[in-house]
Amino acid sequence: MNQNDRNVKLLKDIINIYSPTGHEYEISKFIKEYIEELGFKNVKMDKANNVYGEIGSGNPKILLCGHIDTVPEKIQVKEKDGEIYGRGSSDAKAPLASMLIATSNLSRDKFNGKIIFVGVVDEEGSGNGIKQVLKDKIDVDYAIFGEPSGIDNITIGYKGRLCIEIECNTKSVHASAPWLSENSIDKITEVWKEIKQYVKKNFQESKYNSLSSSITKIYGGNTSNVTPENAKITLDFRIPHEIKIEEVIMNIEDIISKFNKKNPSTRTNFKIIDEVKPFEINKNSKLLRALIRSILKIRGERPKLVRKTGTGDMNTLGNQLEIPVLTYGPGYPHLSHTVNECVNIEEYLESIKIYEETIKELARL
Prior knowledge:
The protein is α/β, with parallel strands linked by helices. Helix content is 36%, strand content 26%. It has helices at residues 3-16, 25-37, 89-106, 128-135, 184-201, 245-262, 286-299, 313-321, 345-364, and strands at residues 41-45, 51-57, 61-67, 78-80, 83-85, 113-120, 142-146, 153-158, 160-169, 212-220, 230-239, 267-276, 279-280, 304-308, 325-327, 342-344. Helix 1 crosses helix 3, helix 5 (184-201) crosses helix 6 (245-262) and helix 7 packs across helix 9. The protein folds into two domains: 3-158 and 279-364, Aminopeptidase (3-Layer(aba) Sandwich); 160-276, 2-Layer Sandwich (Alpha-Beta Plaits).
């Protein structure tokens, strides 16, 4: 078996371990044992089941980080027409495996600096994996997150996220006499309409630069012949780099405060479920320049710099540590979370070389 065959086998082995968010222990254990055999130093699993390993020493200190969890639903692992199919093949086990192999290959080369490889849990959930990494005070100068950007694209920015739950309370009455009380579902719908008007005012031609919002959950009512006394909606806002998350929260508070004054017979409030600030790397960063040059060398063409309307672990780490962070990896972003999720084998193997070259380039700068 040649090296490329071994690299493909590793990816298939990792994909075959079903690891939906919250059930990552088995794959964490597999990766821990695997990198121990490869000779990584300071290998460990933390209390969140993140997996760590290091090679090298000194500066710069570079984090290569990929997530080991996936969305639910198994997909049969198969190889067809130069692609590997399976849950997590693209998002994000191919980037994770290529980072792991690149780190192992670099352990045999002479280069200045230290690489810290981390496989994190719960990226598809609440981000508890990366939060634990930060809680443990990781010390790095640069970070690359392994996500399916596409081999010829570099993700340089993500929008922020604000998730809130709005609750509206009224008196319940018999459904045959709805005039006796306000209906909590009706009233919470009115709040939602006012929030949509606020969001619409922040629309830009570029979706990346626009504030957006979506209802992701709705609850109300207990029985079919009684008006609901309680209704709840969960809203997901994606926040562009130009808008501060505190500004969005303040405007929501203002909308609900005014609504309560106009509707004294109802009681409406909200609570924050999650908030993540937007993040974008400085285009003059040494990290970005190193990756661009590496892709040019391996692929023969200049990569496209992309900004995404989603939110990732890159936001959390980049904002808290205030260091250059970007996201890069093989895979088809538009197939993430779908039944057709797959990764191109040739691109997966080339991404290993690109990660290696980027680290070497960065160590030379």
